[in-house]
């Protein structure tokens, strides 16, 4: 927060914004890297790229959430 | 009850004796005035809701007394709720400046949703996705405008896509996730969350009331009557539950709006 003071609500704010942002991050990770994996699968014909992309996307999103909101 | 009769007879269709659960035809309304194709029941209800919110706020806040009475009392309860639960946790000292918008959104969405359980009217406006989309897009445009205004055109996107404290190379992989999540998924889920809850709730209510109506009134048989009673009981229980969900979704919609506005006013940490 810009005003530098710690208010009692700040905890609640962090928790709520984490709780409502995490699903978007996970979805974004899956769509982005799962989609990239799917395109790669179509292009190369190697089916395995789709699940690899999906898992990479989720892993990256979890890492992002952990670094952003984890204490 | 006439809506149910129409529903029951319409849903049964060709074969009279078969119970057919209600489907998407619940959401199709013909134009109220012939020739004016956009003016349907949901549109009328949306206009009515606007009118209700305007009249309510006018009568509650136009001539405030020091000791609140009547409508002002109810209005101030709503105001306090939105201020303490929605605005202050996310906007802090800026909360009061945004109360007009947030209070309007909260009451508006709540009245939209309440239309789903008011007898005879019985249609939640937000179960047509166009209505929540318009609200979500308004908030989205406001969010980007405020972000650019308060953090600068480059600073806003930099703060959004490059959260501090991560090792440099990983930004290549994470910045697209941030971008997609904040600018595409977030507004989408903002609208869809409200729409899907109201849509599903309306179908559930219609289904249980149709079960009750069909098995108790239309087709009373010794075997079916138990099911019909279950349908009636579930209709009552689900109506109560639906009223809770309606309030919750209105609260969440306003809360997420406050969160997006707050994140645009100040960069994340």
TrEMBL record, chain A:
Keyword tags: Membrane, Transmembrane, Transmembrane helix
Residues spanning the membrane: 20-40, 46-66
Protein name as catalogued: Uncharacterized protein
Organism for this UniProt entry: Acrocarpospora corrugata
Automatic annotation (TrEMBL), chain B:
Alphabetically ordered keywords of this record: ATP synthesis, Cell membrane, CF(0), Hydrogen ion transport, Ion transport, Membrane, Transmembrane, Transmembrane helix, Transport
This protein's GO CC annotations: plasma membrane; proton-transporting ATP synthase complex
Bilayer-crossing regions: 39-61, 98-123, 129-148, 169-188, 194-216, 223-241, 247-265
Membrane topology: Multi-pass membrane protein
NCBIfam families assigned: ATP_synt_6_or_A
Similarity field: Belongs to the ATPase A chain family.
Name the UniProt record assigns to this protein: ATP synthase subunit a
Gene source species: Acrocarpospora corrugata
């Amino acid at each position: 927060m810009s005003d530098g003071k710690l208010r009692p609500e700040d905890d609640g704010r962090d928790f709520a914004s984490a709780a409502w942002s995490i699903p978007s991050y996970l979805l974004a990770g899956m769509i982005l890297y799962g989609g990239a994996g799917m395109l790669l699968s179509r292009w190369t014909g190697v089916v395995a790229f789709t699940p690899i992309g999906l898992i990479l996307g989720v892993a990256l999103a979890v890492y992002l959430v952990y670094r952003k909101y984890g204490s | 009850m006439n809506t149910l009769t129409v529903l029951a007879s319409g849903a049964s269709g060709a074969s009279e004796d078969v119970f057919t659960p209600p489907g998407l035809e619940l959401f199709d309304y013909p134009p109220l005035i012939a020739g004016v194709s956009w003016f349907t029941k949901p549109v009328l209800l949306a206009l009515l809701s606007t009118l209700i919110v305007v009249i309510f706020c006018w009568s509650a806040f136009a001539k405030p007394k020091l000791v609140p009475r009547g409508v002002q009392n109810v209005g101030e309860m709503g105001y306090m709720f939105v201020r303490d639960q929605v605005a202050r946790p996310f906007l802090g000292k800026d909360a009061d400046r945004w109360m007009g918008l947030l209070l309007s959104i909260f009451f508006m969405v709540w009245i939209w949703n309440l239309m789903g359980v008011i007898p005879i009217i019985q249609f939640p406006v937000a179960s047509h996705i166009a209505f929540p989309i318009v609200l979500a897009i308004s908030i989205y445009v406001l969010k980007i405008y405020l972000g650019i205004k308060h953090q600068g055109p480059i600073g806003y996107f930099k703060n959004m896509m490059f959260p501090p404290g991560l090792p440099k190379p990983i930004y290549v992989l994470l910045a697209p996730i941030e971008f997609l999540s904040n600018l595409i998924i977030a507004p989408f889920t903002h609208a869809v969350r409200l729409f899907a809850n109201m849509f599903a709730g309306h179908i559930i209510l219609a289904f249980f009331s149709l079960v009750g109506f069909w098995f108790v009134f239309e087709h009373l048989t010794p075997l079916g009557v138990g099911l019909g009673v279950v349908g009636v009981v579930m209709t009552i229980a689900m109506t109560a539950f639906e009223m809770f969900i309606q309030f919750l979704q209105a609260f969440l919609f306003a809360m997420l709006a406050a969160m997006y506005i707050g994140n645009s006013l100040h960069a994340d940490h």
